[in-house]
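Researcher: Quick test of sequence recovery. Tokens follow.
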């Protein structure tokens, strides 16, 4: 017998045109409520581990694929100097419920053992640059961007004013050169060097396009780094000033348990509340009238609800991620990935990129109909033609296709989420 609260959710789902499986929803509600007192759980068969709630949403079906991509993006260990723990995050860590995941997001804890903070900063600067240099381009990957260091002063770059203290984005050729050329507001030249900003690494992140020739797929793969310095006395200091919590991560190798355990004990006791608070700020941003993105808002709301005990609302949102229309959310990111994978100088196999474009077109045909289908297919065909054209993929066409896809995704999530009164009230309260 379905409990009355769940039945209310089922009724709202039915009104929204969603086929929410009562037995599946009930099973998940029982699992998340009885996941055990242990905060971290380990799958002894696969060696995968993570927060108990995150582990409920992870499927090991594509584990071999994720580990292959992980081998490309991970920062390697250096015995006695650098120790790491690589995990999946984002939609990749929720593969059991997100039939149409977006980017392939990784999160890596990188602990640098050094006598001083300055030495630790120099080590991470060396390690990151070496990683980029070793993975610039190949048949199955292409490096896109690194986030490393903070601007020491206000600069103008590519027509944009970047404030002192903001994170620096390095293109591939700039990492190779070890320098960025910019200017002051009055036009005087400014040179920012990789080693010159190493003393304040800030937010560190690496991005690639990766290709799977067997699947004929391309995707963005990112590695967000949480870099810490371990001093001789054993104290742990995050180099960006903040030790990230672990509520959404699925770690790929049980040998990382000792490092994870060492770092986890330094996570703030208020980490869960702080994490939920940060997610709510992001929800507010994505619900804004200026640039709404209801798909991203829905994903963050799901993470909030599954962590703070609002499991019924989470059960409703889980169903949205499995709907055919959410493939459009994946395509929104994919169109840009196709452009990056086929850009000038790319060594990624053309056949793989074309195969991904063909699959994107088929997904649109299966999902949409009428004028929307015709116009979006026409735009995607233009993107596909640009893969082999001498002038490359047209930026304007890419942006038009992405705008159309985002509009379709927004309409889908807005309509479905407003069908549940609790979600409607929550969105109204957060949006203010």
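Model:
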């Amino acid at each position: 017998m379905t409990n009355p609260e769940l039945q209310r959710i089922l009724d709202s789902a039915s009104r929204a045109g969603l086929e929410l499986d009562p037995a599946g929803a009930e099973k998940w509600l029982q699992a998340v409520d009885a996941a055990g007192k242990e905060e971290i759980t380990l799958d002894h068969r696969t060696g995968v581990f993570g927060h108990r709630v995150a582990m409920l949403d992870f499927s090991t079906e594509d584990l071999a694929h994720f580990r292959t991509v992980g081998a490309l993006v991970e920062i390697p260990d250096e015995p006695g100097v650098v120790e790491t723990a690589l995990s999946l995050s984002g939609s990749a860590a929720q593969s059991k419920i997100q039939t149409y995941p977006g980017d392939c997001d990784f999160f890596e804890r990188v602990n640098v053992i050094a006598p001083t903070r300055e030495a630790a900063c120099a080590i991470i600067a060396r390690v990151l640059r070496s990683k980029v240099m070793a993975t610039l381009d190949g048949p199955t990957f292409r490096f896109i961007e690194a986030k490393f260091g903070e601007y020491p002063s206000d600069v103008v770059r590519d027509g944009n004013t970047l404030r002192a203290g903001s994170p620096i984005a390095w293109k591939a050729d700039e990492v190779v050169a070890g320098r960025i050329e910019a200017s002051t507001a009055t036009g005087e030249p400014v040179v920012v060097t990789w080693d010159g900003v190493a003393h304040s690494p800030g937010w560190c992140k690496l991005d690639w396009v990766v290709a799977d020739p067997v699947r004929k797929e391309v995707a963005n793969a990112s590695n967000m780094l949480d870099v810490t310095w371990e001093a001789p006395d054993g104290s742990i200091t995050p180099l960006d000033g903040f030790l990230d919590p672990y509520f959404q991560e699925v770690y790929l190798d049980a040998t990382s348990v000792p490092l994870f355990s060492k770092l986890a004990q330094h996570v703030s006791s208020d980490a869960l509340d702080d994490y939920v608070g940060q997610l709510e700020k992001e929800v507010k941003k994505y619900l804004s009238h200026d640039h709404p993105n209801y798909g991203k808002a829905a994903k963050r709301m799901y993470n909030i609800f599954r962590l703070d005990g609002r499991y019924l609302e989470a059960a409703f949102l889980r169903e949205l991620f499995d709907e055919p229309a959410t493939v459009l959310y994946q395509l929104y990111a994919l169109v840009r990935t196709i452009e990056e994978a086929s850009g000038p100088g790319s060594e990624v196999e053309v056949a793989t990129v074309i195969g991904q474009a063909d699959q994107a077109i088929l997904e649109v045909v299966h999902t949409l109909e009428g004028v929307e289908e015709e116009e979006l297919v026409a735009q995607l065909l233009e993107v596909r033609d640009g893969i082999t054209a001498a002038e490359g993929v047209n930026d304007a066409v890419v942006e038009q296709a992405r705008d159309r896809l985002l509009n379709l995704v927004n309409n889908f999530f807005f309509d479905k989420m407003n069908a549940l009164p609790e979600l409607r009230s929550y969105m109204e309260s957060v949006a203010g």
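The longest helix spans residues 395-417.
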